[in-house]
Write a structure and sequence with these properties.
Layout lengths: L1 E2 L2 E2 L6 E2 L10 E2 L6 E3 L2 E2 L2 E4 L2 E4 L6 H19 L3 H18 L5 H17 L3 H5 L1 H10 L1 H9 L14 E6 L1 H5 L6 H9 L3 H9 L5 H4 L6 H4 L12 H14 L18 E5 L3 H12 L3 E5 L7 H5 L8 H12 L4 E3 L6 H10 L2 E4 L5 E2 L17 H14 L11 E6 L2 H12 L4 E6 L3 H7 L2 H9 L3 E4 L1 E8 L5 E12 L8 E4 L5 E4 L2 E5 L2 E2 L33 E3 L2 H4 L4 H21 L6 H12 L25 H4 L12 H8 L7 E6 L1
Parallel strand pairs: 10-11, 10-13, 11-12, 13-24, 15-16, 15-22, 16-17
Antiparallel strand pairs: 1-4, 2-3, 2-8, 5-6, 7-8, 7-25, 9-25, 14-23, 18-19, 19-20, 19-21
Helix pairs in contact: 1-2, 1-5, 2-3, 3-5, 8-9, 8-12, 8-25, 9-12, 13-15, 13-22, 17-18
């Protein structure tokens, strides 16, 4: 909800002009009326209307600035005449009226050009920019006519105190935790400019190999193409640029050339997983020396030892790690940071980023549950043992021949456990999950779940372990399980899981592997620092600048949020690195306007699932990459997803509608 003087945002019409403030109607949308804690916004304008928060706003100047922003964009694009020439005409006519030289015919011309652009522009930015301008001309007609008839400037035409802060976004970009310019990298694939594609990705996402393979792709849930037929296969198109660079042995394609001279500023990073690698890369690009401390004997964190080889080949992941090394990052492995080391970092470094993961497996809360019981194997330790041997030859191979394995969970970790168990030759593999098939797909991906089913994993839904049964030698022998059913909430809330009496069942098994969740080991935090923690026992930040309650100590990734996806960890670390890059020089914690606008737009939500998409032909099929057949994959660790062919990649990229939008806030 936002208090507005006037709004046409997303079809709403609120006009509080002439009314006392206590009678103002509120917008139903989370419009950015407060730009920052100490700065209020005066107005907001974007692809679906505009809103005014302050009576002092000069509407014509607001529209002129918006048109000026689009005009610069359209000159750089130039892919269609309506977008390019229309953008120039919009700005020229808006500015002509704003400076007091307009005619009535200019107003009519503006309306005509706006409607033509909305009907004929090739991409959404050209189709949507005229929308708020038409709204202005309709609802502030008298304001426009006053300037035209009296040949006077708009009230704030020469004002230089108001800042007009613009950002180009898209529904998919908004949904991506790293805000990757997705239409740009897809366009690079379509145009066979794989170098441009990779550079577009790496502006905000350095792990292109990784997130081109194991990302849960929330962007696809907010792809406008889904309103027409099916979403673009965004994730799979991301890996193409990265594989192109690697397969052709090119030099690193940095979107911004790393600074050759290192500054005297130093940052300590604890953890060399996705968050630590991301922060090290972007700080290194800025010429800031980073020392990354990693407890494991290998770099990469949980992606290295948790995500199996068949999903994320270590050779490809190592390329993402080498990218972080290429900017001068210093990595120190086999080093478990403790409180004394953190105290030392506090004195010797200009800032410290905690980027370690959540590597303590949580219990399933069953009777007789003892982590030291033979046959009870925590998911993190299980995957460490599997992957350290498979990927690095460290330790001993896991052989589950003739064994029955039961995993409890419903996320990516549990999927990795059961599919690794299949490859370790287990005789039977079962996953118990308290909820249903639909939820497990939402927690992971459709592909991941169905590939596990193909490989022979048995899923038992609406079930949970009540008691662990051991044999006379104290070894795990069987599991007593409960069945549940979903009972609708009479008040319309979330359905509740209720135990079905008399429906208990027993599973005889050799191993129970709990993968319900993980927690962070916070024993390294000095007690006297009294750091604020969340109710989930993770490091508390404001979720925007990622500084903890101690000045100069930042946190990103699982240790800040709890177990999350790789792309979430990367997004947090990218933001933290940006903040740290300024903090080490100024001692101040600040966000850029780009970052502030990102946060506002995410609250507002760019994607509209109820939008009826017009102007595009439906029915272009989504491309499906080749997968290794079941019989060729389930007894080994070859990569399952073979990726698109060039023909498939181009066909899929051509389905993209380039749904760019411009948003602007007057502050």
């Amino acid at each position: 909800m936002a208090r507005v003087l006037f709004s046409t945002w997303r079809g709403e019409f609120i006009d509080n002009r002439g009314k006392p403030e206590e009678e103002w109607a509120e917008s139903q949308y989370k419009l950015p009326e407060q730009y920052e804690t100490d700065r209020n916004a005066k107005a907001f304008i974007g692809w679906d209307g505009f809103a005014i928060f302050d009576e002092s706003v000069d509407v014509v100047r607001l529209g002129t600035e918006y048109a000026a922003t689009y005009q610069k964009y359209s000159e750089a694009c130039g892919r269609c005449a309506p977008g390019r020439w229309g953008g120039r005409i919009l700005y020229d006519l808006m500015d002509k009226i704003a400076r007091g030289e307009g005619e009535v015919s200019d107003l009519e011309h503006l309306k005509e050009v706006s409607r033509t652009m909305m009907e004929t522009s090739k991409c959404e930015i050209g189709r949507t920019v005229p929308k708020p301008l038409l709204d202005m001309m309709e609802y502030f007609h008298d304001t426009f006519m006053d300037l035209i008839e009296n040949k006077k400037k708009s009230p704030l035409y020469d004002d230089r105190e108001t800042n007009y802060i613009a950002k180009v976004t898209a529904p998919c970009m908004d949904a991506c935790p790293t805000h990757v310019d997705i239409p740009a990298y897809i366009e690079g694939v379509r145009d066979l400019r794989y170098d441009d594609s990779l550079k577009a990705t790496r502006k905000t996402m350095p792990l292109a190999h990784t997130c081109g393979r194991v990302c849960p792709h929330p962007c696809e849930d907010e792809c406008r193409r889904a309103n027409l037929d099916e979403p673009i296969s965004i994730m799979e198109l991301k890996r193409i640029g990265a594989d192109y660079e690697t397969d052709h042995h090119y030099e690193w394609l940095h979107p911004v050339p790393p600074k050759k001279e290192k500054s005297d500023k130093r940052v300590a990073i604890v953890g060399a997983g996705p968050a630590g690698l991301t922060a090290a890369y972007y700080l290194g690009v800025e010429g800031i020396q980073c020392d990354v401390y990693e407890e494991l004997p290998v770099l990469g964190g949980e992606v290295a030892v948790g995500v199996p080889e068949y999903r994320m080949p270590v050779g490809k992941y190592n390329k993402d790690i080498e990218l972080a090394k290429s900017v001068g990052t210093n990595f120190i492995t086999n080093t478990k940071v403790d409180a004394d080391m953190l105290r030392k970092f506090d004195k010797e470094y200009d800032a410290t980023l905690l980027a370690f993961g959540t590597r303590l497996s949580k219990k399933v809360r069953a009777k007789n549950e003892r982590p030291d019981m033979p046959g009870y194997w925590g998911a993190i330790n299980f995957l460490d043992t599997i992957n350290l041997y498979v990927k690095y030859g460290i330790g001993e191979p896991v052989d589950l021949t003739g064994k029955t394995v039961v995993c409890v969970g419903g996320g990516f970790t549990s999927m990795d456990v059961v599919r690794c168990s299949v490859r370790a030759n287990a005789e039977k593999v079962i996953m118990l999950y308290r909820r249903d098939e639909k939820t497990i797909i939402r927690n992971t991906t459709y592909e991941e779940y169905h590939e596990a089913v193909e490989e022979g994993v048995e899923f038992i839904f609406h079930s949970a372990v009540e008691e662990i049964i051991e044999d006379k030698n104290g070894r795990l022998k069987a599991l007593k399980c409960n069945r549940f059913e979903l009972v609708p909430d009479p008040d319309g809330g979330r359905p509740q899981l209720v135990k079905i009496e008399g429906a208990d069942f027993t599973i005889e098994c050799d191993y129970l592997i709990p993968a319900v969740s993980q927690s962070a080991d916070l024993s390294l935090l000095p007690e006297e620092w009294e750091l604020e923690l969340t109710s989930w026992n993770t490091l508390k930040t404001n979720g925007r600048d990622y500084m903890t309650s101690r000045k100069g100590l930042f946190a990103a990734g699982d240790c800040e949020y709890g177990p999350m996806t790789i792309v979430n960890a990367v997004g947090q670390a990218k933001r933290a690195a940006s903040v740290i890059s300024r903090y080490v020089h100024t001692g101040e914690v600040t966000l850029t306007d780009e970052e502030i606008m990102e946060d506002h737009l995410r609250k507002l939500r760019v994607y509209d699932k109820n939008e009826k998409v017009t102007g595009w032909l439906p029915g272009l099929p989504r491309q499906v990459s080749e997968k290794l057949p079941v019989d060729e994959r389930k007894d080994n660790n070859r990569e399952v997803n073979l990726g698109f062919t060039q023909e498939q990649a181009i066909a899929e990229a051509e389905r993209c509608m380039r749904c760019y939008y411009i948003a602007m806030t007057a502050v």
